[in-house]
Specification:
Blueprint (H helix, E strand, L loop, with lengths): L11 E14 L2 E13 L4 E9 L2 H14 L2 E2 L11 E5 L2 E7 L6 E2 L2 H10 L4 E7 L3 H13 L4 H7 L12
Parallel strand pairs: 7-8
Antiparallel strand pairs: 1-2, 2-3, 3-4, 5-6, 6-8
Helix pairs in contact: 2-3
C-alpha cells in the first residue's frame, strides 16, 4: 500500500491518552510520558501513533509526526461506512456498523476520536472486551482498514458489476 503524503492536508490532531511511566533507577524514579495521538483530515484519511518522551509536548509532537507517516484512506459511503466490520487488536475489539442519516456518532471516547478524525458523521459502534484506550484505538483503526467498497470486493472476486437498469 502506497504511503499517503500528508502535505497539503488540513489534519486535525487529537490526544486520546497520556500515560506517565516511571523507570526506577539507583537515584530514584525517572519519569517520562507516553501519548496516544490520532490525526485525520475529516475526509477519509486517518492515522494513529504513540509518542514517548521526557516532556509531554515532545511526546505529542513525536506521536503526531509518526501518525502522519501511518495515514490510511478509508472508503466512505456518504458520511457513514459501507458495511459492518469488527476490528481486533490485543484484547480490544470494536464493532462498527453503518447508521441512517441523522443518527450521529454513537461511540465511546477513544473510538469517537478516531471516527471524528476520519469524518464519519453517522455510525453505531460497540467497544467489546478491553477498555484500554491503546487497544480500543488500534482495534478501531484495524476495523477501518478492513472496510471495502463494492467495487473492491467485486475485483477481488473477479466479478463484473451489475447495474440496476440492465435488461433481463
Amino acid at each position: 500500500m502506497a504511503r499517503i503524503n500528508p502535505n497539503g492536508m488540513e489534519l486535525t490532531e487529537t490526544v486520546v491518552a497520556i500515560n506517565r511511566v516511571a523507570k526506577v533507577v539507583k537515584g530514584g524514579k525517572r519519569f517520562s510520558f507516553s501519548v496516544l495521538v490520532v490525526v485525520g483530515d475529516k475526509k477519509g484519511h486517518v492515522g494513529t501513533s504513540v509518542g514517548k518522551a521526557k516532556e509531554i509536548q515532545a511526546a505529542i509532537q513525536k506521536g503526531i509526526a509518526r501518525a502522519k507517516k501511518d495515514l490510511i484512506e478509508i472508503p466512505l459511503h456518504g458520511v457513514t461506512i459501507p458495511h459492518a466490520v469488527l476490528g481486533e487488536f490485543g484484547a480490544g475489539r470494536v464493532f462498527l456498523r453503518p447508521a441512517a442519516p441523522g443518527t450521529g456518532v454513537i461511540a465511546g471516547g477513544s473510538v469517537r476520536a478516531v471516527l471524528d478524525a476520519v469524518g464519519i458523521k453517522d455510525i453505531l459502534s460497540k467497544s467489546l472486551r478491553s477498555s484500554n484506550p491503546y487497544n480500543v484505538v488500534y482495534a478501531t483503526f484495524e476495523a477501518l482498514k478492513n472496510l471495502r467498497t463494492k467495487e473492491q470486493v467485486n475485483t477481488l472476486r473477479s466479478k463484473e458489476m451489475v447495474t440496476a437498469d440492465a435488461t433481463r
